[in-house]
Write a structure and sequence with these properties.
With 333 residues, the chain is α+β, with helices and mostly antiparallel strands. The chain folds into three domains: 66 residues, Structural Genomics Hypothetical 15.5 Kd Protein In mrcA-pckA Intergenic Region, Chain A (Roll), CATH 3.10.290.10; 104 residues, Pseudouridine synthase I, catalytic domain, N-terminal subdomain (Alpha-Beta Plaits, 2-Layer Sandwich); 152 residues, Pseudouridine synthase (2-Layer Sandwich), CATH 3.30.2350.10. The protein has seven helices and 15 strands. The strands form two sheets. Strands 5, 6, 7, 8, 9, 10, 11, 12, 13, 14 and 15 form an eleven-stranded mixed β-sheet that branches. Strand 2 and strand 3 form a beta hairpin. The longest helix has 13 residues. The radius of gyration is 20 Å and the shape is globular. The relative contact order is 0.14.
C-alpha cells in the first residue's frame, strides 16, 4: 500500500508549556528558525491542522491534548456555497448534503468574531441562507437572507445529511425529536480491524481521564449512549484488516461513533483523536484515508409542522467512494 499523504506531515503534541498559547506562538516555539511572519503565513496558507482540522486562525489557543500537524502542502480550499446541495426545502425545514471540511455551525466562543475572521472558515449555517435564496430564485436583491437554525451537528470532517429549521415552530419540533432520539440516523464508516455485528453501550463524559471525551465506568455519571454496528464488507489489505460498516445511532452524543469504535479497538480510518483506548496503545493508521471515514448516509424525522414521515439518503461522496474502491482493489479478503 502506498504511504498515506499524512505521512508527509510534521507532528507536534501540545505540551503543558504551550497549552493556552496561540497556535502561531506554539509554532514559533517548535520552529525557532522561522520568523513570526513565516509561521503566520503557514497558518494562512492552510498548512496547519489542529486535531485533523485545518486551522486558518493564527489566534486559536491550544489545549494540552491538541495535536498540531504542519502539512507539506496546503490543504484544499474550504467548501463554499457552490459545494452545498439541497435535498429538500420548504418554508419550515431544509435538508442539506453537508460536504466534508465545513463546520456545521459556529461554536459559542466564535459567534462574536468579526465577519472578516469568520469568513476565513465559513460554517454551513452561514452558507445556507444564500444557497436557499438562490434555490428560491431570490438572488441577492431581496436583502439579507433569513438565517437557519441548527438542531444537530456533524463534525467538520464528516460528510452527509443534515436538517436545519427555518422557523421557530420547526426548530422546537425538531429539537424535541433529536432530544428524545426519535429521529433516524444511519452512517457509513470505514474502521480499522474486523468489526462484527453488535451494539456498543457506554456512558460518555467530557473527560474520560486523559483530557478527551470518552466512556466512564462510574455509575450515574455522563450520558447514556448506544451505537448499533453492522459490517457491510470486510477487507484485507497487505495483512491489515478494514471494515466498511453501518452505524445506527440510538442516541446522538458528541463524537459518539468515533469514541465507541476507537475505544473498542477499531478506530475509524483517518481518525486523529480517538485512535486508542483509554491510556492504551495508539493504533497506527496506514489506510491512506483522505479524512475521517464517516458519512451520514440516511436521515429520517417527522416533519415538525405537517407531521409527514420524512426519509432521505445520500451515497458516499467521491473522496470516500474512491478510498473504499482503492481498499477493495487491494483487498485479498
Amino acid at each position: 500500500m502506498p504511504p498515506s499523504p499524512r505521512d508527509a506531515a510534521v507532528v507536534f503534541h501540545a505540551s503543558p508549556e504551550v497549552a493556552g498559547r496561540t497556535v502561531s506562538a506554539a509554532l514559533r516555539t517548535w520552529l525557532p528558525e522561522r520568523s513570526w511572519s513565516q509561521v503566520r503565513q503557514l497558518v494562512r496558507s492552510r498548512r496547519v491542522t489542529v486535531n485533523g482540522n485545518v486551522c486558518v486562525d493564527e489566534g486559536r489557543r491550544l489545549a494540552e491534548t491538541d495535536v498540531v500537524k504542519l502539512l507539506e502542502q496546503s490543504a484544499p480550499r474550504p467548501p463554499d456555497d457552490q459545494d452545498v446541495r439541497l435535498q429538500y426545502l420548504d418554508q419550515h425545514v431544509v435538508v442539506v448534503e453537508k460536504p466534508a471540511g465545513v463546520t456545521s455551525n459556529r461554536h459559542a466562543e466564535e459567534r462574536n468574531w468579526p465577519s472578516r475572521r469568520r469568513q476565513l472558515q465559513p460554517t454551513l449555517d452561514e452558507l445556507l441562507p444564500q444557497v436557499i435564496s438562490k434555490a428560491e430564485g431570490r438572488g441577492r436583491k431581496r436583502g439579507v437572507p433569513r438565517p437557519v437554525r441548527a438542531v444537530h451537528r456533524l463534525d467538520r470532517e464528516t460528510s452527509g445529511l443534515m436538517v436545519f429549521a427555518r422557523t421557530v415552530l420547526a426548530e422546537r419540533g425538531l429539537v424535541e425529536q433529536f432530544r428524545k432520539h426519535t429521529s433516524h440516523r444511519r452512517y457509513l464508516a470505514v474502521a480499522q480491524g474486523r468489526v462484527e455485528t453488535g451494539t456498543i453501550e457506554s456512558r460518555l463524559v467530557r473527560d474520560r481521564g486523559d483530557g478527551r471525551r470518552g466512556s466512564t465506568k462510574l455509575a450515574n455519571v455522563g450520558k447514556a449512549s448506544v451505537t448499533h454496528v453492522r459490517p457491510v464488507e470486510h477487507l484485507n489489505v497487505a495483512g491489515e484488516e478494514y471494515t466498511l460498516l453501518e452505524c445506527r445511532l440510538e442516541t446522538g452524543r458528541t463524537h459518539q461513533i468515533r469514541i465507541h469504535l476507537g475505544e473498542a479497538g477499531h478506530p475509524l480510518c483517518g481518525e486523529t483523536v480517538y485512535h486508542r483506548p483509554l491510556f492504551g496503545t495508539e493504533r497506527e493508521d496506514s489506510s491512506g484515508a483522505p479524512r475521517i471515514a464517516l458519512h451520514a448516509a440516511e436521515l429520517g424525522f417527522v416533519h415538525p409542522v405537517s407531521g409527514e414521515e420524512m426519509r432521505f439518503t445520500m451515497p458516499l461522496p467521491n473522496d470516500l467512494k474512491q478510498f473504499v474502491e482503492r481498499l477493495r482493489s487491494w483487498s485479498t479478503a
